[in-house]
Model the fold of this input.
Amino acid sequence: MAGSGCWGARVAVAGACLLIGAMADAKDGPATAADRWAAWAEHQRLDRESPFHGLAWRNIGPVIQGGRVVDVEPIPGDPYGFYVAYASGGLWKTTNNGTTFEPVSDTLPTSISGDLAVDPTRPEVVWYGTGEPNSSRSSYGGMGVFRSADGGRTWQHAGLDEVDRIARVRIDPTRPDRVFVAAIGRLWTPGGPRGVFRTDDGGRTWTHVLKGANDTTGASDLVLDPRDPDVVYAAMWDRLRRPWEFREGGPGTGIWKSTDGGDTWTKLTAGLPYGPNMGRVGIAIAPSRPDTLYASVDNFDPAPPDQQDLGDRPISARTLRTMSREEFLRQDPDEIEGFIRASDLDDSLDAERLIAMVERNEITPAGIAERLRDANAALFEADHRGLEVYRSDDAGATWRRTHAEPLRDVTFTYGFYFGEIKVMPDDPERVFALGVPVITSADGGRSWSRFEGQSVHVDHHAIWIDPANPRRIILGNDGGVDVTYDGGATWQRMDAQPVAQVYAVAVDMADPYNVYAGTQDNGTLRGSSRARPDRGDDWQFIGGGDGMYIAVDPTDNRNLITGFQFGFYSRSGTNAGEVRPRPAFGEPPLRFNWQTPVIKSPHNPDIVYFGANRVFRAFDGGRTLKPISPDLSTARERGDTPFATITTLSESPLAFGLVWAGTDDGNVQVTADGGATWRNVSRGLPRAWVSRVHASAHERDRAYVSLTPYRDDRIDAHVFVTEDLGRSWRSLSRGLPAEPVNVVREDPVNPEVLYVGTHKGVYVSLDRGASWASFQQGLPPSPVHDMVVHPRERELVIGTHGRSVWVADVLPIQELTPAVRAKALHAFPVEDVQASRNWRSRPPRWHRGDPFDPLFLEPAWAHPESARGRFRADSPNLTVPYWAARDGEVSIRVLDGDGNPVLATRQQARRGINSWRWDLFVDRELALAAEQARLAKLPEAERASPNRSKTPVAESVRLGHRLMALPGDYRIELSQGADAAELAFKVKPPEKRQPRGVPAPKIRGQQGFERR
Done:
């Protein structure tokens, strides 16, 4: 497979030179590399031409939760340097042992990581394979391989952009231009290149050296023999995911070996399992004895009866399948009650009723088991063999399973999510297998124990063991990075990076307002909208599991609904309790989407809507949910993944009972009478997963819908609007790059403004979708899953799936009306500034971290588009946004209340919205002159010997203070040639001083007594 034709160019240029011209038209079938590069070129063009270039995003975290790590790699020769690759948060680098990290891949066209390799002979050379190998619901494809020759400062595209997902990158230490890549291939559709690839010329060209047995088999792991890198072992994995099922294994799975650098291969079979149930395979070689290899196998063969785990309760779904009626009736009623409550069965069912039903032969124990369809429980309950570890001591010729007993509760039913296995560098008998916990064996795999401490997050995907000091081990998991320096006795977290994989965001009406984020495997968190993650986190956990939607009472933010995957929600506050509908016993079970929607009515926060495959409503905060719809899905596909479910709900703020619902099988349904009747209004829409339905707050019959073809490995953008309650739809997709759309929102202030969040960023329309402009402004290309506009603060909050939460001021966008755009120059309003007494003080001489220190540099990821220097979000500053109709220099003057200038500067403006950020420092000479002008208005006696309160500027000059704006009225004048604009604001006086002492209490009647 040929590499990029733009070798040597920065990737920002490479994308444009690969494919110049119009974006590829939407077509059937998975997206090709040409489609993706064309979409990226359009993404970049829109970013360059955006009229919103002067508006900046700020990252507010959270960071305390970490994020899913797929690889950790050291920097050879640097004991304090290593890289961390986050699944959808890009590549980060530290050179101070994790004290700080910086992202090094934000200029690339993807933030989706697969695997990383650092050249052991040239540590500045880094190979970055993109596309996540963990085949979960929220993993994404990539754009091939990228190579850096300067430690991640710049990148070149190095080909393989058709393979979609890369599981492993290995460098030949004797020939550093020879690199092997294990490509796992597309997740959702068969076909496309997958398997093992090799380059011998540093990525200019690639050879497909090992292909899978069929069109769903790719390579899941790869290792080189440290004695002879021509000896290569590759693990192949046959898998295919669909929205309704996941085939996690297949006949193409197995281990292969080459002894000639990949030119020829032999399948290794002796002692290994094989067949249609063989799932993901990981392989490891013992560095100190390379003939010893280990393999982890996710084996879906049924477990033998004597090895099946029936659990620690006498009644479970497994025991019921073979339990007789008589045996059931002998069970302790309290155990039956406990089983009912743990099994998500009908609220009205209790042990007494169920026993009576079995006694009357109305149901059998096996029939009870058939009614259990708890998708969340199914993640952890299985009757298959699960994780198995195999060992070879003859370089792969023969293998044996190392353990007699099953390795339970390590990967559960989702071994596809794991697969890493590692051997201690200096001990071939010490091996580690990664899963929900990390387990380790000191006797070559015969016996196992848990390795990591209880404080370490679960779900492990990466491990690095320091060969120079094997007691130093770094783990990468769903909660970030953890390191031990004493072989696992104690652990230190290294999670100060904003890499949360956010599913949903919400806001409240506190001042300052709070932001709520549901995150992948890190629960639900709440944090201040003014949080500064680079100074420590201001977030707290308020829910567990995989955090999903959050419903906030705007009148009381203690009344929340939060929850986790598959619709397990609960209420907090004055009406605490569970929020979950259940069908009557005997009725068909409900189906809950992974991200089940729940909303509070905009008309009354006590009214709650909940979407399973039917819509439910409660009038008591969610306590009593009743169905108000039939099954709104139409698909008949069923598998091991809940499908044909509701994915999104929205009620019109203008009409109670006007409710919209969207489903994963492509239906949009609406009711205008509170659920009495529903209409399927999907005609005219693509048949794709409905990612969002959004009812207009400006027109009753208007609604917006976005659909995503991501689960067909397509990248088309789909946004539509209806003006007549779904009777007709109009596409708003024209002008958007080919990026799947996750969310569409209408602006609450200006009905002409729309926002969409895609797999790559944010776009804004000023004309209700007739045209679109990029609102990227330094955002990394991480998927944007949700967004909300705060109605009071007029800020846009977005939740990215990989880079946490970002906030931007959208007041200038809301006010960028056609009348404003017709002006040559226009200044948008700004908030008044609160002065502080410490402004009038001498700057610290040695303290580099002071917010006023001109040498202070904030992290690039915190404010990607802000000026570097003294600016910080919590230091004195004023951002002045203004519209300029043309490019050119703009003169800026700040005048005090008397019209005297205190600052004059210039800025090069570009057509569009610009921002001038003022640090509140004034010009010394102008400020002194303005002060003298004010003194001149005083009576002559006061002018001769003025009180120093009348000469604060001169006093600050005398004492060496900072020269900052004094309290008072100000006006900012902007001019560009003959065109001018101005705005006014105040610098408010510092807050009044508080009494130093406690005043004596007044005694009742004291004053009257003293007068007598």
